[in-house]
Amino acid sequence: MDALLFLTFAGIAVLCGINLILQTHPISSALSLVGVMGSLAVLYLLLGGAFIAAVQLIVYAGAVMVLFVFVIMLLNAGAERKSSKPAVRAWISLPLIFTFVILLGGLIASRAPADAAVRFGEFTGGTAANIGRALFTAYLLPFEVTSILILIAILGAVVLARKEI
Amino acid sequence: MPAELTRILPQSVPLSWYLILSAILFSLGVAGFLFRRNIITVFMSIELMLNAVNLTFVAFSYHLKQVDGHIFSFFVMVVAAAEAAVGLAIILTVFKNRSTLEIDEVNSMKL
Questions:
Q1: CA nearest A72: which of A31, A23, A21, A27?
Q2: What is the CATH number of domain A2-126?
Q3: Which ranges constitute the DSSP H helices of A23-87?
Q4: Complete DSSP assignment for A98-137
């Protein structure tokens, strides 16, 4: 059952990822990205990360993607025009990306622990209680620094979105 | 579930399958970043790469039976949310000044 769920949602994630880079209209790409994020949330659940799956759905698939769709609608972004320039970039980078995937796959296949298997329910440490405990003890300083980061992001967004820039 | 399917498929998933899925998603993000010329789609490809890395963090967190990977993944999400807010504000400003979303036309910093 684990393998079936993994293969189903991994397949959905990869297909949505391919669709993201093939679609010319940004709205189609945004919806594909929501598909990727939703199926990744299911994979997090399989890996025992209940809290991180919920956060993935709420923050990523919810808030961040709403922001993306909002900007696409606001700018009335249409389909990408065909490029008039020769696609030199594509001919150089496509083999490089394939090489990268193959090298990475070989590295994972040779170095990853061979006996490591993922069974649903074997690790249940990813609950909100455990994450909260780690966040407010061992990771307290990064957590507090995050508030400054978000404050800077708010100020930056407000300054950038003013009228006279 | 049909009986043949249970016989073919393993009962548990190897950890490396998760890592390879993550590598594939990351490479798709790189490809989108390089090939697409719409600035919003380029930005979404970056989000795809961040998601792929998060999957690796959570998978290793399972393998090591520790919660630290989840915390890292949580911080990546926080940074991605802040980055999306600022990045989309920059996109709005670029569009207001140039009325275009094509990254090839935003080239005033090129030599």
A1: A27
A2: 1.20.120.1200
A3: 26-46, 50-55, 65-75
A4: HHHHHHHHHHHHHHS-TT-EE-TTS----SHHHHHHHHHT
Say yes or no: A126 contacts chain B, CB-CB below 8 A: yes
Task: Find tokens 């600035």 and name the residue.
Answer: B39
User: A21 to chain B: nearest residue by CA?
Assistant: B32
For the whole model, what pTM was predicted? 0.91
H-type alpha helices, A47-64: 50-55
What is the distance between the alpha carbons of residues A59 and A52, in angstroms, rounded to a whole number?
10
B27 vs A contacts (CB less than 8 Å):
97, 100-101, 104
ipTM summary value = 0.90
- The type of residue at B65 is K
Q: What local confidence, expressed as pLDDT, does residue A92 receive?
A: 84
pLDDT tens-digit series, residues B21-78: 999 999 999 999 988 888 999 999 999 999 999 999 999 999 998 899 999 999 999 9
Beta-bridge partners for A66 = none
CA distance B61 to chain A (A): 9
**Contact call for A26 and B38, based on CB within 8 A:** yes
**Three-state DSSP class for A76?**
coil
What are the φ and ψ backbone dihedral angles of B67, each rounded to 5 degrees? -95, -5
Amino acid at site A15: L
pLDDT of residue A116: 78
A55 contacts A132 by C-beta, under 8 angstroms: no
Residue A165: the pLDDT is 62
* Domains located in chain B, CATH noted: 37-103 (1.10.287.3510)
